[in-house]
Amino acid sequence: MLVDINAYVGHWPFKQLKHNTCRLLLERMNRFGVDVSVISNLNGIFYKNTQSANEELYEEIKSVSEFKERFIPFAIINPIYAGWRQDFEICITKMGMKGLRLFPQYHDYEINHPSFVELVKRARDWGLPVALDIRMVDSRQRSWMDIPVFEGNAAVKFDIITREWAVRNIMPIIKEVPDARYLILNIANSIQLDPEDMDVIKRADVLFDTSGRQIRGEDNLYELLKRFGNNRFAFGSHSPILDYLTGRLRIESLSEAEADEPTKEMLRSGNAKRILNL
After folding, report:
1. 3-138+164-276 has CATH 3.30.70.1400 classification
2. Domain residue spans in the chain?
3. What is the DSSP letter of 266?
4. pLDDT of amino acid 148
5. How many CA atoms lie within 13 A of 81 on its CB side?
6. For the purposes of burial, counting CB atoms within 10 Å of the CB of 216, is it exposed (0-12), middle (13-18) or buried (19 or more)?
7. Cα 153 to chain center, whole Å?
8. Model pTM?
9. What's the order of all strands across the beta sheet hosting 205-209?
10. What is the structure's pLDDT at 157?
11. For a pLDDT cut of 70, what percent of the chain falls above it?
12. How far is C-alpha 224 from the geometric centre of its chain's CA atoms?
């Protein structure tokens, strides 16, 4: 079995996307042997009312019976938007959403914002995983309307502070709600953690996906498995923004000495099934 824990439908305002509907995504899943995909609606990152995007996804999935069997919908909730508590309840109890995808950078709140903490605690209490993307798109290819890349004097060569995350940037919410379940997706920047944070990660229920560019070189998947454990990674494509195969190839290219077949099965589906309660 193969489970993709990081996929989307919908549009990105600054980039043309392909295979970004349920029907087209399912075609790719069938072509490349993916059984189930966790999906959210990209439109929810940009709509002022994220619930409209959740409704779009709900209507699309219920339109074809096979979609209900192959897609696991995650709701996008903005905890600083009025009515988010009602949106959360509707998404879970009426739409059957199975988790949350949250975007502090795009919805412009701090990761320790009280409403964000409350939302993560509600997800925990409902037994729902919370997904956080380290990065959505490469900030070197950007629009003036995208999230800021510079703070301070951008003209100064070394005064560049990106709003892209590294893994350490999500640690405050994991420390605040250590008993929630987390999906950390598209690792594009530093994975280095100090000993205290590493201890928190190892005690928490955290799953990283294989889509991010940082899972290469010295931080290749084999080295990360040794550092974090075989139960901490799962296949993710970050489709349709990234290509559909790289995340899978990072698993299949592991030698027998690096990962035996039971370990690869954990990466293909076992770890995902555990955190998603499949």
Report:
1. no
2. 3-138+164-276
3. I
4. 67
5. 22
6. exposed
7. 31
8. 0.92
9. 3-9, 36-41, 71-76, 99-102, 129-133, 181-185, 205-209, 233-234
10. 37
11. 91
12. 18
